[in-house]
Each structure stands twice: as C-alpha cells, then as structure tokens.
C-alpha cells in the first residue's frame, strides 16, 4: 500500500503544490500531523491530484487577493452533487492567495463515515463541520471554507440551479465570536458539472446518503453520467465583509446578518452568470 | 507522611503509582480483587478483597487512609459484565462511601476517555463537560460510564472529601498490560480499510506523574489526561512494528465478537476507535496541577513494545 502511495506521489508530483504546502505556517507534531489529522506529506499528494481536476475545469479565478491572511470564513454558493466547488476553491486559495492559504473545509457529517474519503479529507485539512472545530481553527488563524447551504445546496436539482437555498446561521455566530471577516464567493459552473434532475429520497435514505441524484444523461451514459462534465468554472472572491455584535444574540438578529451575506453571494452568482459566455 | 490506599494494585499502573508514593515516604496500602502477579518491590500492605464486599471496610478501618487512589477500574472485558458491574459500579460506590465514612481527605478516581466514544460526529478536541456517547453504540461500556457519572456527582455532592476524576487516553508503557498495550505488542493486527483516525497515547511514567500531581493538588473536578499529541493510528502501529492486515470494518466487528470467546485482544467497542477520532483536550489538568507529559509520541509507543 505504501509502495502504491509512493508511486502515485511521484507520478502526480506537482512542484507548485509542494512549494505552497511547504510555505504554510501550520503547527504540526514531531510526526508531521496536526490534531485534526492534516499532514503536509500526504496532503501534497491529495492536492496534486486535486490540481489535476482543477485543470480539467480550467477555472478562471477572480479577486483571490480578497482572501486575507489570518482568520477568515470563505462562504460560497454550493452546487454540483460532489464538492467539486470546494476543491476548486481550495486549490485556488493554495496556489493563488498571497500568502498561500490552506482552507479548512467544514464537511458534512456524512463524510467521516466514508472509507478512504474521510482519510483523504482529513489529511488535506478538511474537518467535520462542527462549531468547536471551527472555533478552534479560527483561533489558530485558519481560513475556514463553509457552505452555509449544506447538502441542500450541493444536492440541488436542475430547476433550482444557481438559486441559493436557506443559509444556516452557525457560520455567522462563529464569525462574530472569532471576529473573523467573511469572504463571499460565487462559483459558476458547478451546477452544470454533474446535473441532477431528480432526487430519489427513499433511495438516499436507504443508502444513508444526503441525496440520490438522477442524471438526465443516465439512459445514455449509464453510471458514467455521474462523472463531471468538462465545464469551465468561474470563481469570484468578493471583498471581505465584517460584522459586529454579540455572537449569542437572538436568531432573528443573526438571521438579518446572514441574509446580508446570502444576498451578496446571490448577487455575485447572478453577475457571474450574466458575464458567462459559454458553459464550456 | 500520608496513608495512601491504592485500588487495583495488581495492575501495572497502580503498582507504579504505589512505588512512587512509597519512594516519597508515604505509607502505601494496596487492594485488589486479583492476587498480585509478583511481590511488590517496595514497602506496602496488600490485601486481596472485592471492592463490593465487607472486607474492604476492614482495610479502611485499620489504616484510615487520608488519600484514596481508586485506580482499580476493571476495563478487561474478559470479566463477565455482571462482575464488572459489581466491581466498577457497586464496588466504586462502596469505596467512595468508605472514604467519606473514614474521613479521607482526597479521593482520586481513574476513569477512561473510552466513555466519550469514538464517533464520526466527534469534534477535536473533546472537553470534560461534553456528552458521553460510547454507551449508545456499545452497552458493554455502561459500567464505565456509570462509574464516571457516580464519581463526577460525588465531586459536588460531598465537598467534605475532595474528589478528582481522571479520564486518561490510552495508557501504554513497558509495564502496562491493558488491551491497547497488548494490541501494540502483536506481530500482526487488523486495520480498518479506509480509516486511520488520530489517536492519543500517554506513557505510564507521565500517567503516574499526572495521578500524583492530581492526588497531591488542591483542585477538584473532572480532568482529561492526554499525552503529547495525537498521531494517526497506523503510524502508531508502524512505530510498534505491527504488520497491518487491512480488513473491512464489518468483518472486524464479526471477528472480534467471536474471538471474545477465546481471547481478549481487543474489546469490540474499541473497533470504532480505529475508525473515528476521539481526541481529548487536557489543558484543564495542565493548568490545575501544573503537570505536563514529557515522553515523546515515538518513545511512548516504542517503549511499550520493547518491554
């Protein structure tokens, strides 16, 4: 197993990724891990692999200079059935931000139960989406990637594309508590990468997955219909937004602030769509 | 000179704690329901008695300990559930009552981090006031949870005796013979395909120091005890020189369920600790008792298997 890992590593080896990971100011122990399981050694392999996928989507990144150093919450729209939008943002922040940022993605409660995936996520810096994880990582000046739409966002069907689902309030409370800015992000292209026209809820429930998408290409391509199409991604990082007030305020007070962020992301998504000339 | 009663004296950790307490010039009284595997190499009075039987009161009456270190929690699932309940729940209750009756100044109860449970929804780290999830999936651990709950309530219910509850991570070391140490000493061990959670180990020497720091301090309450820093489970096995045999988790559960009939290498509830993290925070004990672990992650594992 270690041998396979080694060969795969040399095959995928991406010097840009390695240099960026080496420059990260993350505190690791004598064996090279942080308490959540991030390991620079293995993350180089996973990020090199992610970089190949990133290139597949030929993303155009706008406003990456808006990602500051220090604690920050990166808040995008969510789409595409698989977290490919998260992957594109993570690679963009690692290779494009100044200084390079390792985003700590807050993942759905489903992911830690998935063999192999849980390991790849943890070694690459992703953590369970949980307030205590988020609070501790913000205190250590990390960049947090959070999708406030949750699985409802990524599991959107075609008729709901680019319409933001309800935003959770947790991210705002954490931003207020940590005094962290919020960088709104719009990802264009995700909705077309893996298309879902229907969510088979009973099947999702039986398989213990957040949703079970039906692709319109299923009759034509079979299971290959679930492979992402080579659409072009456009990612817009907006200017950091800052909020004041007590983090434990009443829900309706927090909700007003959440709506400001949601409206900003929706606005950026609409602008990005208007600017897009072709899906591919 | 303090008269110190130590339960579980037949176990590796209690034996070491007794040695250190004797070296510091205190009178050591040891109790265990098991016979001593080898005589102690330091002055101590040792009694074989079940913690839930009347004989234990004779020990209290005779020695009137000022310090009670209840290190004798039975974690070994080889013991039947009924017996574990008698020793861990009824027995611990009795020891705490006797400590009160015979006016012990301070009681330390050794619990375990296993009661938090390894769970996919665990954040990192876990603090002392968080829910104990282990019981939901594995009722076999109910006795350990009840023992911990009882001791925790005792902290506030009986302020006349200072009570400290310690919840250590995996205690390993050359003289420890618990499930984890034995697991690390195997030549081959199953690992769960696609899972490699972060795991914490504490060296016996650091654990002895933590127990004595807490025993001799003033603070009361519940304290996690972790080692230096968490490491991936498979790195730990690699350091221990264990050949890893990847198996699907479902198969491991079935195998361990069956193997309990013949061996006690690893209790089935510990399989989840090979899949999901259960990383505990121990800033509280470091601050309250000015203690910190010294033995490195690598040395902790290596010294356990070189024994």
Q: Would you give an account of this structure?
A:
The complex is a heterodimer of chains A (280) and B (307). Chain A has helices at 2-12, 15-22, 40-56, 84-96, 117-123, 131-139, 151-154, 170-178, 190-193, 201-207, 218-221, 251-275, and strands at 60-62, 72-76, 103-107, 127-128, 143-145, 182-188, 198-199, 213-214, 234-237. Chain A is of the alpha/beta class and 280 residues long. The longest helix of chain A has 25 residues, at 251-275. Chain A is globular, with a radius of gyration of 18 Å. In chain A, 45% of the residues are buried. Chain B has helices at 12-23, 55-63, 81-101, 134-137, 142-157, 179-184, 204-216, 233-240, 249-259, 283-289, 297-305, and strands spanning 3-7, 27-32, 45-48, 67-70, 106-110, 162-168, 170-172, 188-192, 198-199, 201-203, 221-225, 231-232, 243-247. In chain B, the strands form four sheets. Chain B has a seven-stranded parallel β-sheet, sandwiched between helices. The mean pLDDT of chain B is 90. Chains A and B meet through helix 5, strand 4 and helix 6 of A and strand 12 of B.
Key features of this structure:
heterodimer; A: 280 residues; Glycerol-3-phosphate (1)-acyltransferase; 7-stranded mixed beta sheet; 12 helices; 9 strands; globular; B: 307 residues; alpha/beta; Rossmann fold; 7-stranded parallel beta sheet; 38% helix
């Amino acid at each position: 197993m270690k041998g396979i890992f080694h060969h795969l590593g040399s095959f995928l080896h991406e010097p840009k990724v390695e240099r960026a990971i080496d420059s990260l100011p993350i505190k690791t122990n004598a064996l090279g891990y942080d308490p959540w399981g991030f390991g620079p050694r293995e993350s180089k392999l996973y990020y090199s692999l992610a970089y190949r996928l990133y290139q597949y989507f030929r993303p155009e990144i706008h406003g990456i200079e808006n990602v500051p150093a220090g604690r920050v919450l990166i808040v995008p729209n969510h789409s595409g059935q698989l977290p490919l939008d998260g992957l594109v943002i993570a690679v963009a922040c690692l290779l494009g931000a100044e200084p390079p940022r390792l985003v700590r993605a807050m993942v759905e409660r489903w992911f830690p139960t998935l063999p192999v995936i849980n390991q790849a996520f943890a070694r690459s810096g992703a953590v369970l989406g949980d307030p205590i994880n988020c609070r501790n990582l913000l205190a250590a000046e990390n960049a947090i990637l959070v999708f406030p739409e949750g699985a409802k966002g990524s599991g959107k069907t075609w008729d709901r594309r680019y319409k933001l689902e309800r935003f959770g309030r947790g991210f705002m409370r954490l931003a207020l508590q940590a005094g962290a800015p919020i960088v709104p992000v719009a990802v264009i292209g995700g909705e077309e990468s893996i298309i879902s026209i229907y969510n088979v809820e009973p099947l999702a429930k039986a398989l213990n997955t957040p949703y079970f998408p039906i692709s319109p290409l299923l009759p034509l391509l079979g299971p290959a219909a679930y492979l992402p199409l080579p659409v072009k991604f456009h990612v817009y990082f907006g200017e950091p937004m800052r909020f004041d007030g007590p983090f434990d305020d009443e829900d309706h007070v927090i909700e007003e602030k959440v709506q400001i962020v949601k409206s900003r992301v929706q606005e950026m998504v609409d602008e990005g769509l208007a600017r897009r000339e072709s899906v591919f | 000179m303090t008269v110190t009663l130590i339960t579980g004296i037949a176990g590796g950790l209690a034996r070491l704690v007794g040695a250190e307490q004797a070296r510091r010039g205190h009178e050591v009284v040891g109790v265990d329901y098991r016979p001593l595997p080898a005589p102690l190499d330091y002055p101590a009075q040792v009694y074989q008695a079940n913690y839930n039987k009347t004989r234990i009161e004779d020990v209290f009456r005779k020695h009137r300990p000022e310090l009670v270190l209840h290190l004798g929690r039975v974690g070994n699932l080889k013991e039947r559930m009924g017996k574990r309940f008698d020793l861990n729940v009824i027995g611990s209750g009795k020891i705490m009552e006797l400590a009160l009756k015979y006016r012990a100044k301070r009681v330390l109860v050794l619990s375990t981090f296993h009661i938090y449970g390894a769970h996919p929804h665990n954040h990192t780290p876990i603090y002392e006031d968080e829910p104990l999830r282990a019981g939901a999936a594995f009722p076999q651990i109910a006795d350990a949870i009840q023992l911990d709950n009882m001791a925790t309530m005792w902290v506030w219910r009986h302020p006349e005796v200072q009570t400290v509850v310690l919840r250590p991570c995996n205690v390993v070391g050359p003289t420890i013979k618990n499930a984890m140490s034995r697991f690390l000493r195997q030549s081959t061990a199953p690992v769960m395909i696609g899972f490699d959670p972060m795991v914490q180990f504490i060296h016996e020497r650091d654990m002895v120091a933590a127990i004595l720091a807490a025993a001799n301090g003033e603070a009361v309450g519940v304290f996690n005890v972790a080692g230096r820093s968490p490491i991936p489970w498979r790195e730990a096995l690699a350091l221990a020189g264990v050949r890893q045999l990847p198996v699907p988790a479902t198969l491991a559960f079935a195998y361990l369920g069956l193997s309990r009939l013949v061996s006690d290498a690893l209790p089935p509830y510990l399989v989840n600790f090979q899949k999901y993290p259960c990383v505990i925070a121990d800033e509280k004990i470091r601050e309250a008792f000015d203690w910190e672990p010294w033995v490195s992650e690598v040395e902790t594992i290596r010294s356990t298997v070189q024994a």
